[in-house]
Write a structure and sequence with these properties.
mainly beta, disordered N terminus, five-stranded mixed beta sheet, OxRdtase_Mopterin-bd_dom, Sulfite Oxidase, Chain A, domain 2, six-stranded mixed beta sheet, Sulfoxide reductase catalytic subunit YedY, OxRdtase_Mopterin-bd_sf, 3 helices
Length: 196
């Protein structure tokens, strides 16, 4: 090295996906009204492409093995929040024992919202149905009583007020995907809209 050469100065800030900015708060964005979902009627239904269904009531769901992921989340509206803490059930646990040849999943929410994902993105410790945020029950405004959490994709893929997942052989776009959002939604590749 030449005398005095020190190389490039490294950024001391966090590594964010392109086009994102860091926020300390937790913005609330929804496409419609917040549904009221009583815990005594809440149910999560996993439907296989064969027609087989697996159901959990709230007590059954919260009685499953729990995990506590701490992850960064990224919204398509360009904010990122780092080190968020959650508690919930891994999709690996929910899919355990389900015989399926499906390659895709369509997530359904109370209130009618849907979003599509490749099934592989819900496996391998990459996705959870969470009911606790930062040590407290998940507020309704953020998707409570339970929401999907898929932190490696833009947050619209982490459907709020989740009530079930249908496994599919062929992909089927969800709410935002039919409105022009990207089918996959990788924040590191800035996949916000179709064609990105």
């Amino acid at each position: 090295m030449s005398p005095g050469f020190q190389g490039r100065r490294r950024s001391s800030g966090p590594a964010l996906p392109p086009g994102q900015y860091l926020t300390e708060d937790f913005p609330v964005l929804s496409a419609g009204p917040t549904p009221k979902v009583p815990l005594d009627t809440w149910e999560f239904v996993l439907g296989a492409e064969s027609g087989a269904e697996f159901r959990w009531s709230w007590p059954e769901f919260t009685g499953l093995p729990q995990e506590t992921p701490t992850v960064d989340i990224h919204c398509v509206t360009r904010w990122s929040k780092l080190g968020t803490s959650w508690q919930g059930v891994s999709l690996d646990a929910l899919l355990d024992g389900v015989d399926t040849a499906a390659r895709y999943a369509l997530v359904h929410s109370y209130g009618g919202y849907t979003t599509n994902l490749p099934l592989d993105d819900l496996r391998g410790g990459r996705a959870w149905v969470v009911h606790t945020y930062d040590g407290a029950p998940l507020p309704a405004a953020h998707g409570g009583p339970a929401r999907l959490l898929v932190p490696h994709l833009y947050l619209w893929k982490s459907a709020k007020w989740v009530r079930g997942i249908r496994l599919l052989v062929d992909d089927q776009p969800g709410f935002w995907e039919t409105a022009g959002y990207h089918d996959y939604g990788d924040p590191w590749r800035e996949q916000r809209y179709q064609g990105d």
